[in-house]
Target: DeoR/GlpR transcriptional regulator
Amino acid sequence: MIDQDLPALSVIRHQSILRELEATGRVRVRSLAPAFGVSEETIRRDLSELEARGQLRRVHGGAVRHEIDREQPILERSRVKAREKIHIGQIAAGLVQDGMSVFMDTGSTPVAVAQAMAKHSFANVTVTTNSLDIGKILAHAEGLRVRMTPGMLRENDNAIVGHETCDYVRRFAFDLSIVGIAACDLEFGWMDYGQDESDLRRIVAGNAQPVVIVTDDSKFGRRASITTYALDHALTVVTNKPPPPEFGERFAASGVKVMV
Model:
């Protein structure tokens, strides 16, 4: 395909892309290219230029509306891919064995894991968490003890965060950690929006084997603010369907275990 990529045409495409983005929240390269009669590479350049201006955010296969780097309140996140999170929760809950010391952090998908765990019977399992929601869910689960971290309570997701939280978690060795994540990018790896989450998850990675990331498929190809783990970090990933091929190939080459 030969692109007629004159400056005036480029401006028209950019305006149309932004209008579509405002209307739908997401645009895809494979749909835009034939609509404008240009190559997919031209559309990727368009999206890169618009991202550089702060007008959108590139994701795998396209772009989404640019927003200030933040996560939505946990009640809103819990409604997104709710069925998929139940599935992920059931798989991850099966990794918890009697006698384990387990760390679980905050997030709508770790909450789904806790809900699945609450339906099981365990013997002598201790769960350390910085999530009030997870603490409440597991408080009366059979055979589980819950240890809450100290720190400051954050309003939008009932997470306990801060340097006190990190200092406390450093004291323990865990048999298993179950953590959420905000995004997974081919270039920057596993990413978070907040420094508190990223710091705590890195600390846990040094205190627990294995580290299990629980995430739905929408996080692949998404970019957040802070790199928490490299893409080839030794992890187990529990998700609802196989990652896109380019991620799957990197995981396979790095020994990252994927459970679906």
